[in-house]
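Dear Dr. H.,

I hope your travels went smoothly. While you were away I took the liberty of generating a structure for the chain from your last submission, since the lab meeting agenda had it listed for discussion. I wanted you to have the full record in hand beforehand rather than looking at slides cold. The sequence, exactly as received, is reproduced here:
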Amino acid sequence: MSGKPTFAFVTIGGGLHPGPVVRDLTLANRLHRRGFKVHVYWLLEGRRDLVDPGIEQSLLCHGARYRFGRPSEIMDRLGLLAALLPEGLGQRAVLGREGGERRLVNLLWALIGTPESDTALARRLGDFVTRDGISHLMLGCATLGPLALAAKRLGGDTFEYALTFQGDARFADCARSQGLFERYRERLQAAAKGSRWPSLVASADGLKRVAAELGIAEERLRVIHSGVEVRRQAVRPPLWMLKNVFPGLVEDVPIVTCFGRQDAGKGHDLLLYAVKQLQSRGVRLQLVICGGSTVAASGGRAIVDLAGRLGVALHHAGPVSAAVRDSLLAHSHCLVYPAVDREASGLVVAEAMSHGTPVLIPDHGGITELIRDGDRAGGLVFRRWDSGDLACQLGYLLANEVLHRELARNARAIAERYDAERMVDRVLQHLGVPSPTECPEVDGVPSAVAR
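The corresponding predicted structure, in token form, is as follows:
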């Protein structure tokens, strides 16, 4: 492959896979800023506001395509027309009242449950790639790998694709529930083998899990941690941004934040039980929970309902803007990430530490790799699934000011390891692509930002 590469990112929009989307678009935006030509191909729904000006965006298919059991070209066209209308107007008619989880199930069946992976969509992807002169097709969710492999087999063998395993555990669980897991393994093995490069994973624990569960050889996998925007100035965003969304917040009581997808497996119930225990002991705190959901409003309602049953005072919201998120993380005493599932990574943990905010996480999964650097730690861990231990660790962090200051100081320094520019450097190195920016080395890897 010669000449300067042109990148395209195939990413699942609509709030259904926020972690991989953030990672994809961070990488896409940074590559564009370095002078590469970049395209974004949205699957199900687009988010143009997240993409830098100058990056070409296309909707590969609308979510309505997977409203029913089989991919529907007619529903896809209706969805594409509805997407041109003002937000919300016409969307319910084509998407129905079902949550996004049903669309993911139908998407999985289209990609895995048939001999060819949604042939019409694969052909469309190949047409997009040819039209835009794409040399490097980046798939931030490896479950989409069979689609890229099908596009190559249909005559689009002018490009190479790279897989990243992030967010695929949800698809794997779905495949098990649908009786498709063995076929899922076979198709992902074929997609990984068909790529020129080893597939990327976000943590060492994630690598072990992908190898064990999906049967992909470890030598065909590489660890590159996801990158975030590291805040190098300790100036807090204004508090009024928070009070616009959470008007009941006060300044003299510590804010404990849980930020992320409000779905099963994220452990919000554990956090609510832990906070109830602390409040019964007279510990003062303000609990904030916010983020999107793949199950429409039902995920958030379940959290609010449980908080009401427990008598826990809760400041709650759905998705919030990046400005509100940054203000919330900066003003929080700590971030709690109480995931029940074995998480390969957790971008919000690195984001919180970049603000100098200590974190509290479970003691399993790749997320534990984020908070330590040698003897330094940017947070505490609690025993997984144990709300009692979560309450103890959270209470300790609220009461011990010396510990909190130490963790806050460490957190910002540790977050430097996950700077987005480092991620870009390592991805380009992995692909064998020289960066147009000449720069010094950091940890033996060229870096575009002098530190």
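Two observations you may find useful: The chain has two domains: 6-227+420-445, 240-417. DSSP finds 17 helices and 17 strands in the chain.

With kind regards,
E. W.
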